[in-house]
Amino acid sequence: MASRENRRALAELVTLVGDNPAQLERARALRAQVNERVATLQGLIDLQGAQGMAAAQRAGAVGTGFAQMQRINAATEQILAEERVLLRQRRAEAERRASLTTSIVIAGILVPLVLLGVLLWGLARENRRARGLEREARATVVRLAESIEQRDRLAEQRRLLGAYAGLLQSCHDRNEAMAVTARVIEQLLPHAAGRCYVLRASQNLAETFAQFGTEVIPSDAMLLPDDCWALRRGQPHRSGGHGGHVHCRHVHPEGSPDSAWMLCVPLMAQGTSLGLLHLHGLHGGDEEATTLVEAIAEQLSLSLVNLQLRETLRLQSLHDPLTGLYNRRYLEEHLQREILRCQRRQKPLAVIMLDVDHFKRFNDRYGHAGGDALLARVGQTLRELVRNEDVACRYGGEEFTLVLPETDRETALARAEVIRAAIGSTTVLHAREIIGPNTASLGLAMFPDDAQVADELLQLADAALYRAKHAGRNRVIGHGQPA
Question: Where does the sequence pass through the membrane (predicted)?
């Protein structure tokens, strides 16, 4: 039984050390030695059974059993020693592997933690970046809204300035141009107030032609050019607010708040000062407002120049250049309007036709220059003797026409006599020679007694004039009056 257990144990040992060739060799040698020892012991047992205990003891005493056991013990110790070494190695390897496993486990724990930290840091950074982008987006939206608002405001300003330019081209005089300018400024700068000044032809005084807004900082109604820095320097002048504290003398900002501003923009064209735009307000007045006022001033300046040129051309087209009186074209336009006005008011109107006597003979004697000098002197006499509401015209050649509104026949005849006498006593200095006097003949027709139409009145007055000439000249004859 014991021998079977030993063999099974040795077989198991050989199997266990099969992965180690040296130990396998030692295990096999130990198994052989054990088998040899078992065989020896079996022989002694058999001897004891056959010859008795004494014989077996004698055989065992003289046998090799002790040496066998020593070899078995030595082999066993060698195997055990090698196994202990291997066990220590395995334990060290196991500890190393355990440490490695622990390190791997710790690393496996730390790496996800680090990755999680990196992820959280990245998320936090991305969150900060997203918040920054959101702030930038909101700021961009605000700027975009401001840009759209500014674009719409500038578009509206351009539209108003375009309409303003069109209105200026249709204005008939400075008063209309100034009134249109005041309305446009009120639309473009509703919080501003001010005045539009125009310089007199003498350039020594500027008068208020239009006023807009509620004046909170008084400005003089009339000013001298030296009272305004803009007129002195020929460029816009800003004061108050962020524009400095050098005020024009025509402005009186005493008691106004620090935010109050004043702006003067000269009206200039072709190097000539025409007037001034003055604006002020309690707030606003930024660069945009200054730019707007400058654009308005530029257009208004051009309009004023065009109006002056237009008025000059109109006057030239309606006046006779030699005598300074109105010409026949103006008479034809004006006479019918005066007739209608007197008709509405139920007042009379007188038309006087005047012709210089013997003018051809005078012209032949003194030349055309002398004739022109005489006609100019007659024109001057007529200008001096007519009223503001009367119209004196050069009808053509040496013939003149007077329109006397709201004048009855007796008064018209009396005034015609005064004019005839004045012309009859008039002399002319020409070529260092005093020539004259010369006489004139006059014919009179009345509205509504004689005629009610302009052309018919002129014909009747002209017919009365020729009757005066045929009656001996130098006299006044009215229509229906005997010569």
Answer: 98-124
- pLDDT value for 64: 64
Give the span between the Cα atoms of 294 and 302, in whole angstroms: 12
* Contact call for residues 299 and 168 (beta carbons, < 8 A): yes
Read off the DSSP letter of residue 466: H
**Residue 465, strand partner residues:** none
DSSP-assigned letters across all residues of 86-107 = HHHHHHHHHHHHHHHHHHHHHH
SS3 23: helix
| DSSP line for 34-79 | HHHHHHHHHHHHHHHHHH-HHHHHHHHHHSSHHHHHHHHHHHHHHH
Instruction: Specify whether domain 319-478 bears CATH 3.40.50.2020.
Output: no
SS (H, E, C) 261-278: EEEEEEEEECCEEEEEEE
Q: In Å, what is the CA distance from 306 to each residue of 233, 271, 294, 299? A: 24, 15, 18, 11
Token representation of residue 251: 């402005």
What is the per-residue pLDDT across 243-258, written as a single tens digit (0 to 9) for each?
677 889 999 888 788 7
Q: What is the mean pLDDT of residues 369-380?
A: 92
Residue pLDDT, tens place only, 382-398: 999 999 999 999 999 99
Side chain identity, residue 349: L
Cβ neighbours for 483, distance < 8 A, ≥ 6 positions apart = 467, 468, 470, 471, 477
Beta-bridge mates of residue 208: 197
Domain 171-316 falls under CATH 3.30.565.10 = no
Which of 367, 356, 377 lies closest to 428, judged by CA?
377
User: What are 125-159's pLDDT values in tens digits?
Assistant: 989 999 999 898 999 999 998 888 888 888 887 88
Q: Where exactly are the structural domains of the chain?
A: 2-117, 171-316, 319-478
The predicted model gives 368-382 an average pLDDT of 92
The Cα–Cα gap between 461 and 413 comes to 12
At 447, the pLDDT band (50, 70, 90 cuts) reads very high
User: How many whole angstroms separate alpha carbon 413 and alpha carbon 478?
Assistant: 8
Looking at the chain, how many residues does it have? 483
Q: Which long-range contacts (CB under 8 A, 24 or more apart) does 8-14 make?
A: 10/34, 13/79
Reported pTM: 0.55
Contact 479, 450 (CB under 8 A): yes
CA distances from residue 377 to 317, 365, 370, 392 in whole angstroms, order as listed: 21, 17, 11, 14
pLDDT at 386: 93
User: What is the distance between the alpha carbons of residues 287 and 291, in angstroms, rounded to a whole number?
Assistant: 6
Q: Which residue is associated with the tokens 């329109």?
A: 403
DSSP 337-360: HHHHHHHHHT--EEEEEEEETTHH
Compute the distance between CA of residue 31 and CA of residue 39 in angstroms, rounded to an integer: 12
